[in-house]
C-alpha cells in the first residue's frame, strides 16, 4: 500500500533519542510508517502520496498539556474571567460591569483574581455585597484553591457561624470577629459545601466553551491533554460534558483523565472504585481514564501550601491532607488496582508525602505505576535526589517560573527557592510540563511555557526579574521533552504518542522556526503553522 503523506524538506525533531533528527516522515491513515532519511521514505511513496513540503519549518511531535482541567475550565470560565494582573479595584469594576450586563442571571460565578491582591485575611464579602446583595456570588482565585463569596452566597448555602470547618487550617471558611463567614473560602471541601447547593452553570454554554477551548488548543499545537480532574460535587456535570463533547467529535485532542479529585481522606476507596468503572467506558487512545488525582495541599498564594516553615505574615502552619504514612498506604492501594497516581504537592511537606508514596509503591514491586508530583513548586533540597531514585515524574508549569517580588511577603526566602527543575532533571527524574488550565496564570501556550522554563523570567519582558536560583533552568530540548515524550510517559501512552517514530500515531506540530536554534527569549513569538492529530489537520494558519 502506498503512503498517504510524505513530510519532507524541513527540520524534523523526533524526540526519539536514538534518532533525534530525520529528513522525512511518512504516514498512512492515522499512523507513522516511517521516519528516517529521504531515500528510505521514497520507498513508501508513489504518485498517490501527498507530498507535504515543510519549506524549512520545524516539525515536532504534537504538544501534550500534561496537567490541565479542560472539563472544569469549560464550567468555571463560563462567567466572569479576571486578568491575573488586575488590581482589586479593577476586579471589582469587572464584577460590577458583568452584573449590570447580565441582570437576569440568578447567580454570578467567575475565576482568576490574583490571590496576592489581598492581605493574609483574604477577600471580604462586604466588597461584593456593595455590588450585589440579593444573588449568590462566588469567584475562584487564580489557583482555584480559594474563593470569594458574598453574604447571599453563604446564606443560600446555609453556611453560618455554627458551620464547622471541614479541615481546620487547610479546608476552611475565614471568619469575622463574631465567627461568621467573612467571605474567604479556602480549598475544595468548603467550596463544595457552597457549590453543591447552588447551581452556577448552563450546560449548553459549557459544551460550546469546551469545544472552543479545544480549538484554541489546536491552534497552540496541542494534540493531547492530561485532564487532572474536577471537583467531586460536579461529578455528574463532568461526565455529562465529557460524553457530549466525545459524541460530537468536537474535541481535537487525545484526552486522558482522572474523573474527580480526592480531597477527602474518607473518599479514597470510593474514588478508586469510580475510576475503575470509568475506565471501562473510556478505554481507547482518544478518551481514557487512568489517573488517581489527590489534592494534598493548597497554593502559596492562598497561604494553604504545606511548607516546613511558618508563613512569615502571621506564623501560620499548614499540614497536608495526607501525611507520609497515609500517602504510602493509598499509593500501594491505587497501584494494586492498576492506576497511575498524581498528587498535587506545592509545598515541601506535601512533596514528602509523594516521596513516601513512591517509595512504598516501588518497594511493593509496582515499578510501572506512574507517580507524578503535580506542580513540584518547593521541594526540600535533600529530597530532590529521591525523585530520580523512586522514578517520580515532576510535573510543573513553565509560565509560573518567573521572578515575582510580590510574593516575597507571603513566602520570605522560599520565594527564591522554587521550581528547581535543573536539580530534579539531574536527579534522573522526568520533567513533565503542563498549564494547569484554567488556572494557567500567563497562558497555556506551550511555547510560552518552554521559554519561561528556560529563561525563568516573564516572556516578552527582557528587564523582568529572573526567578532564583537562575541556575535551575532547563534546556530547550528538555522543555520540549517535557511537553511531548515525558507527558506521554506520565499518561502511560509513550508506546503510541510523544515522539515521531514508526508505529506511533501521526500527532504533529509544525512551527515557523526551529526553536532549538533561536534565542530562548524569542520562542514565544514563534508561529504555529499547522497541527495534525491522528493524521488529520486540526489547525492550519
UniProtKB/TrEMBL annotation:
Gene3D superfamilies for the chain: 3.10.310.70, Metal-dependent hydrolases, Urease, subunit C, domain 1
GO molecular-function terms, A-Z: hydrolase activity, acting on carbon-nitrogen (but not peptide) bonds
Residues in Amidohydrolase domain copies: 50-539
UniProt-listed Pfam families: Amidohydro_3 (PF07969)
InterPro entries: Amidohydro_3, Metal-dep_hydrolase_composite, Metal_Hydrolase, YtcJ-like
Record-annotated membrane-spanning stretches: none
Protein name (record): Amidohydrolase
Amino acid at each position: 500500500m502506498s503512503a498517504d503523506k510524505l513530510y519532507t524538506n524541513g527540520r524534523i525533531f523526533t524526540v526519539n533519542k536514538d534518532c533525534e533528527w530525520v529528513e522525512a516522515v511518512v504516514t498512512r491513515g492515522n499512523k507513522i510508517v516511517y521516519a528516517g532519511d529521504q531515500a528510505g521514505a521514497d520507498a513508501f511513496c508513489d504518485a498517490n502520496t501527498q507530498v507535504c513540503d515543510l519549506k524549512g519549518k520545524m516539525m515536532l511531535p504534537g504538544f501534550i498539556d500534561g496537567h490541565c482541567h479542560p472539563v472544569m475550565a469549560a464550567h468555571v470560565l463560563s462567567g466572569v474571567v479576571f486578568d491575573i494582573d488586575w488590581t482589586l479595584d479593577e476586579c471589582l469594576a469587572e464584577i460590577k460591569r458583568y452584573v449590570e450586563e447580565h441582570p437576569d442571571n440568578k447567580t454570578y460565578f467567575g475565576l482568576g483574581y490574583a490571590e496576592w491582591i489581598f492581605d493574609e485575611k483574604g477577600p471580604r464579602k462586604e466588597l461584593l455585597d456593595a455590588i450585589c446583595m440579593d444573588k449568590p456570588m462566588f469567584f475562584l482565585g487564580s489557583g482555584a484553591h480559594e474563593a470569594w463569596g458574598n453574604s447571599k452566597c453563604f446564606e443560600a448555602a446555609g453556611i453560618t457561624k455554627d458551620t464547622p470547618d471541614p479541615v481546620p487550617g487547610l479546608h476552611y471558611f475565614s471568619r469575622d470577629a463574631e465567627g461568621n463567614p467573612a467571605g474567604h473560602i479556602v480549598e475544595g471541601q468548603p467550596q463544595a459545601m457552597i457549590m453543591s447547593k447552588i447551581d452556577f452553570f448552563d450546560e449548553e454554554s459549557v459544551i460550546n466553551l469546551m469545544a472552543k477551548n479545544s480549538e484554541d488548543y489546536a491552534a497552540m499545537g496541542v494534540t493531547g491533554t492530561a485532564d487532572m480532574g474536577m471537583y467531586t460535587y460536579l461529578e455528574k456535570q463532568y461526565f455529562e460534558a465529557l460524553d457530549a463533547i466525545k459524541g460530537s467529535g468536537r474535541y481535537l485532542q487525545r484526552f486522558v483523565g482522572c474523573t474527580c479529585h480526592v480531597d477527602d481522606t474518607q473518599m479514597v476507596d470510593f474514588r478508586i472504585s469510580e475510576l475503575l468503572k470509568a475506565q471501562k467506558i473510556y478505554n481507547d487512545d482518544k478518551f481514557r481514564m487512568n489517573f488517581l488525582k489527590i489534592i494534598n495541599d493548597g497554593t502559596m498564594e492562598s497561604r494553604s501550601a504545606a511548607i516546613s516553615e511558618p508563613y512569615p505574615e502571621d506564623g501560620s502552619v499548614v499540614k497536608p491532607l495526607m501525611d507520609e504514612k497515609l500517602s504510602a498506604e493509598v499509593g500501594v492501594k491505587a497501584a494494586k488496582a492498576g492506576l497511575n497516581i498524581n498528587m498535587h504537592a506545592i509545598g515541601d511537606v506535601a512533596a514528602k508525602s509523594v516521596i513516601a508514596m513512591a517509595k512504598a509503591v516501588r518497594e511493593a514491586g509496582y515499578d510501572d505505576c506512574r507517580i507524578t508530583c503535580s506542580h513540584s513548586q518547593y521541594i526540600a533540597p535533600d529530597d530532590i535526589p529521591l525523585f530520580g531514585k523512586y522514578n517520580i515524574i515532576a510535573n510543573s508549569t513553565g509560565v509560573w517560573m518567573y521572578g515575582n517580588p510580590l510574593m516575597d511577603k507571603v513566602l520570605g526566602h522560599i520565594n527564591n527557592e522554587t521550581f528547581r527543575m535543573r536539580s530534579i532533571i539531574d536527579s534522573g527524574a522526568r520533567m513533565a510540563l503542563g498549564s494547569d488550565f484554567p488556572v494557567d496564570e500567563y497562558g497555556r501556550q506551550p511555547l510560552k511555557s518552554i521559554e519561561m522554563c528556560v529563561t525563568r523570567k516573564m516572556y516578552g519582558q527582557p528587564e523582568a526579574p529572573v526567578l532564583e536560583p537562575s541556575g535551575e533552568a532547563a534546556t530547550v530540548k528538555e522543555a520540549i521533552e517535557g511537553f511531548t515524550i515525558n507527558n506521554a510517559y506520565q499518561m502511560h501512552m509513550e508506546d503510541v504518542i510523544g515522539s515521531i517514530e514508526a508505529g506511533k500515531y501521526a500527532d504533529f506540530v509544525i512551527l515557523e522556526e526551529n526553536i532549538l536554534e533561536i534565542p530562548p527569549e524569542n520562542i514565544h513569538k514563534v508561529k504555529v503553522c499547522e497541527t495534525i492529530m491522528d493524521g488529520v489537520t486540526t489547525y492550519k494558519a
